Amino acid sequence: MHRSTRFAGVCLAVVTLLALSGCANSMRKSYLRDKTADHVYRQELAELWPHVRTVLKSHGYFWKENPGRYVLETDWLDSGGGTLGPGTASRFLVRGIVLPSGGAVVRVLRGDRLQQSVGVGYVDQVIKTQEDYAQAVNNSQASGVLPTQQNYFRDLEIEVEILRLSDPEAASRFDAEALAAHP
């Protein structure tokens, strides 16, 4: 009896430590995203922009941009979906902004869209004649698409990747601060 109680206590301690380390890791990631959201780069946008392109290219995106404007819009990238399942796609709008007080910021907006295909069958159609059968076959191949849903939000995960490439010193400092704040 004493061994099983002791074993249960050890298991509870291990599970508690694992849960706390998972929470701490999540809190460190949130801390890093928050710091990145407010980060002002010392570099000029011309130095930062190749890093923006590198990150987006690593995720498989292609884009359009006006050279020298520091605004980039990617094409929609299909994320999958089956024949009748939802079709999802994502795109990014990235803006580089020079601040009047000095420095620059990079803002990344992500757009996600969901497009649901629907099929129309002939399950409850009564087939009595050859003509009914032909109409049922024709109806079974009809399909449509429900209205597309789109959501846009700031993508701090991509901004963190850009920060790590563009300003590794700041990223390391934020990592150290996050670890100190959430060990």
Mean pLDDT, nearest integer?
81
Number of domains: 2
User: How many separate helices?
Assistant: 5
C-alpha geometry: flat
Q: Using the CA coordinates, give the radius of gyration.
A: 26 Å
Structural class label: alpha+beta
Low-confidence stretches: 11-15, 17-21
Within the CATH hierarchy, at the fold level, what is the topology of the largest domain?
TATA-Binding Protein
Largest sheet: 7 strands, antiparallel
Portion in helices: 40-55%
Q: Using the 3D structure, state the CATH architecture of the largest domain.
A: 2-Layer Sandwich
Tell me how many strands there are.
7
Protein name: Lipoprotein
Organism: Pseudomyxococcus hansupus
Molecular structure report:
The chain contains 5 helices and 7 strands. It is of the alpha+beta class. The longest helix has 36 residues, at 2-37. The chain is flat, with a radius of gyration of 26 Å. The two termini are 36 Å apart. The model is unreliable at 11-15 and 17-21 (pLDDT under 50).
Summarize the structure.
By secondary structure, the protein is an alpha+beta fold. The protein folds into 2 domains: 1-39 and 167-183; 43-114 and 147-166, TATA-Binding Protein, CATH 3.30.310. The chain has 5 helices and 7 strands; from the N terminus they run ααβββββαββαα.
